[in-house]
């Protein structure tokens, strides 16, 4: 149980960027409205430059709030890292999450899935796998992300996604429970 909570905590800088993109996104699309060789949009209107930047900054902001919480509650995960290593790690997690989010859209468009339509598993895991891949370039990644944590993240992320959506549906924040 503790490992699951640790995993969720460590992944917050990768989980939260898309929420910031939803809130602050809009404007010029990342693909500038251009089409790929298959005649479909490269990424689509759901991926914007402002959303991407807000997402990365938002993930980094959340990580700083986590530092404050760790220090006041009295546990050490992100707060045991030297600040420069901390920044490198959480930047790569947040940036990787947004690159992965965009890659997910690129793949969806290639399969002919329209912007906003869901693509199970891909929608919930691409961002995480790219976040892991990017973050693995940070020395601090090896310190905090054990193999166990990495595997738990891959298993719980789609379940967490579903749980959050079902709760949002029950609270009538969403029209469908997925
Ligand atoms: N968003 C954004 N810029 C991003 C990512 C997201 O502006 N880089 C905003 C868009 O308004 C988008 C919303 O957040 O519609 C929801 O994000 P997401 O579900 O990732 O995009 P979809 O609209 O579902 O598009 P896609 O099918 O390409 O995933
Ligand atoms: Mg979507």
Question: Can you give a write-up of this model?
Answer:
The chain has helices at residues 2-15, 17-24, 49-73, 83-110, 122-135, 139-144, 147-170. With 178 residues, the chain is mainly α. The model has no long low-confidence stretch (mean pLDDT 95). The chain contains seven helices and no strands. Bound molecules: cytidine-5'-triphosphate (CTP) and magnesium ion (MG). Cytidine-5'-triphosphate is lined by residues 18, 21-22, 25-26, 44, 46-48, 51-52, 55, 101, 105, 108, 115-116. The site of cytidine-5'-triphosphate has 17 residues, from α2, α3 and α4.
Would you summarize the structure shown here?
The chain is an all-alpha fold and 178 residues long. It has helices spanning 2-15, 17-24, 49-73, 83-110, 122-135, 139-144, 147-170. The two termini are 25 Å apart.
Which tags fit this structure?
binds cytidine-5'-triphosphate; binds magnesium ion; single chain; mainly alpha; about 180 residues
SSE topology sketch:
Blueprint: H1 2-15, H2 17-24, H3 49-73, H4 83-110, H5 122-135, H6 139-144, H7 147-170
Cytidine-5'-triphosphate (CTP) is lined by residues 18, 21-22, 25-26, 44, 46-48, 51-52, 55, 101, 105, 108, 115-116.
Q: What is the β-strand count?
A: 0
Helix content: 55-70%
Strand coverage percent: under 5%
Tell me the overall shape: globular
Computed Rg: 17 Å
What sequence of helices (H) and strands (E) makes up the elements?
Answer: HHHHHHH
Overall pLDDT metric: 95
Derived structural class? mainly alpha
Largest sheet: none
